[in-house]
Amino acid sequence: MSTARRKPSRIQKENRKRILDAALGLFAEQGFRGTTLDQIADACGMHKPNLIYYYKNKEAIHVDLLNTLMAEWLSPLDQMNPDGDPLDEIMSYIHRKMEMSRLYPRESRLFANEIVQGAPRMRPYLESTLKPLFDKQCAVLRQWMQDGKLAQMHPEHLIFSIWAVTQHYADFETQIAVLMPEDHQRRRDADEFVENMFVKLLTP
């Protein structure tokens, strides 16, 4: 008798997506502790027993969201090509991070909340996946700097600075909207400012 697990049906995939999308909004706004399974069930239009069929508890939902987010979040950093033009590679990474901050503000806040709380559910992922990738790309940056292709600076803190600047536009979106009311030029100005700042910083 085969023990292979059946692939989820289309309806099962759709229900999981409903659950995750509802939970994402709640976790991003209220944090992990402030969100309940009952709230998630209400938000996705399911009865709680039906939700538990897919996820046994809210931690399972939270971890699924974070794992999916991290895979997406790390992809641009992973794509930085050591054989490419250094400035082009870094600016491409920064542009993608700015784009992600606009497209995925809830996901960014979800991750920020997890880190602020000490990464109780994500620490193993950070240690096993983010740390090796971070070290690898810092080595690439360091080599470019040694070759005179980039200005000399601390590679690790360069990446931290890129994260801090780009994710600010997601994590503090509400504050930005108050200080700079929405207009068609605001995002374009942000992209131009961030690009100019890092180009000047990185050019030898």
Give the CATH topology of the largest domain: Tetracycline Repressor, domain 2
The name of the CATH superfamily of the largest domain reads Tetracycline Repressor, domain 2
Count, helices: 10
Beta-sheet strand percentage?
Answer: under 5%
Beta strand count: 0
Strand count, sense and closure of the main sheet? Answer: none
Keywords:
mainly alpha; single chain; 2 domains; 10 helices; Tetracycline Repressor, domain 2; Arc Repressor Mutant, subunit A; 204 residues; globular
Write the layout of secondary structure elements.
Blueprint: H1 10-30, H2 37-44, H3 48-54, H4 58-78, H5 86-103, H6 105-116, H7 123-146, H8 155-171, H9 173-179, H10 186-202
What does this structure look like?
- The protein has helices spanning 10-30, 37-44, 48-54, 58-78, 86-103, 105-116, 123-146, 155-171, 173-179, 186-202.
- The chain has 204 residues and is mainly alpha-helical.
- The N and C termini lie far apart (65 Å).
- The mean pLDDT is 91.
Describe the structure concisely for a colleague:
This protein is mostly helical and 204 residues long. Helix content is 75%, strand content 0%. The longest helix is centred in the middle third of the chain and has 24 residues, at 123-146.
